[in-house]
Fold:
Amino acid sequence: MEYVFVYGSLRKGFWNHEPYLKNSKFIGKGKTKEKYAMYVNIIPYVVENEKISHIVGEVYEVDEKTLKRIDCLEGHPDYYRRKKVSIILDSGKEIEAWLYFYPESCGILVESGDYKDYRG
Structure:
């Protein structure tokens, strides 16, 4: 089993959650330990090399099959690239989870790091 940190359409209440994560174990809400930049250009994405805000999201425990399905959705490794990062859960616990990064910035910056704050 692996942990995956989701910050956009895979979060509960968004369009990709049910098809991809409805059977996965919810670990908790949290944010990245390090700062990154979130942009929206139709869909949200996070850029690793810009240090603007902690990214807000949810952590799920996923099996290999689910991780591969998410890789396919995200176009890993050709579109998004996943990398393990430290996540601080709202409970205070720190865990390592996969996060999908986009290689370049474009679109509208979400300064809060929370896709739910985007009003595009």
Q: What stands out?
A: The mean pLDDT is 96. Residues 47 and 103 are 6 Å apart (CA to CA). Helices lie at 17-21, 64-74.
